[in-house]
Amino acid sequence: MNTIKHMQAVSRLLAAHASVFVIGVALVTFFFPHLFDWVRGTTQTVILGIIMLTMGLTLTTDDFRILAQRPLDVLIGTSAQFFIMPAVAWLLVHVWHLDAPLALGILLVGCCPGGVSSNIMSYLCHGDVAFSVGMTCASTLLAPVMTPLLMQITAGEIIHIDAVGMFINILIVTIIPVTIGCALNKIYSRKACFPTIQSLMPGISVTCLAIIVGGVISTVHDDLLEGGVMLFFWTFAVVFCHNSLGYLLGWFAGRAAGFNTAKKRTISIEVGMQNAGLATVLASNFFATQPLAVLPCAISCAWHSISGTILAGLYLKNDKRKEQAN
């Protein structure tokens, strides 16, 4: 029993400090680049599948009912998700004249569905959590079709896009694990041990994400050394602009739709935070000839968690300021 309590405590700690842990693993890997050499190909895909399985284990049939109960909200949010982020990525690629590898990476991040930790950020900033879960479910379910299609549109001129292969890959690493997780939740949710299992999922998810990032750093280590500090900061600047504009334009999309404050915060976070772990795996599997394409994806994995936490904090600070003014 004590062992389980310790594991639950570790899981909570990892969930609360996910970005710090991921960045720490990335830094360690930079100095010990062979630490995650084993995270390649099928192994990387399986690890992402585990992340999506943990997501499925926390979803219930009530979460999917939101899609039917609030179709207009979810339609507006998901449309914003799959229009704003690919469009912003495309503009950054052309305005900044990015080289092919970095262009492919940022476009892939933009074309992926919403991130799995966006629901936590919506909860922290008093957003509409049900709406957040609905958007995450919808964008994830649409990802096998929308991500290859959007990549064909935005990146087809840069490199050949294997749309069918990408569709199958996304299906395998997202829809199937999420479905299995949901089925297990439905079957075993009344078992006494199941809540304990669910409580361990955040820690497992963060650990798997850190392993994926470690694998990416191992892959691009030599290229990073060759490119120097400027390559990293240049890539980070692109990721920062993409993510920040996603938050801003997502909020304005909510305002244009007449959403209340909670829903505007949620759509802002949902649009800005992407499933960069999926982007990382897709970049590794489909753009092997452009190894640096995974760099924007890996940086996004860490930065989106940090920026989401910062944005949630700013929203809460704004609430306190209004309370004090009244």
TrEMBL record:
* Transmembrane helix among keywords: yes
| UniProt subcellular location | Membrane
Name the UniProt record assigns to this protein:
Bile acid:sodium symporter family protein
Give the primary localization class: membrane
Spell out the InterPro entries in the cross-references. Answer: BilAc:Na_symport/Acr3, Bilac:Na_transpt, Na+/solute_symporter_sf
> Would the keyword S-adenosyl-L-methionine be found if you checked this record's keyword annotation?
no
Please give, as recorded in its UniProt entry, the membrane topology of this protein: Multi-pass membrane protein
The organism's lineage is:
Bacteria, Pseudomonadati, Bacteroidota, Bacteroidia, Bacteroidales
What parts of the sequence cross the membrane? 12-32, 38-60, 72-96, 102-122, 129-151, 163-188, 200-220, 232-254, 266-287, 293-316
- UniProt keywords, alphabetically: Membrane, Transmembrane, Transmembrane helix
Q: Which organism's genome codes for this protein? A: Xylanibacter brevis
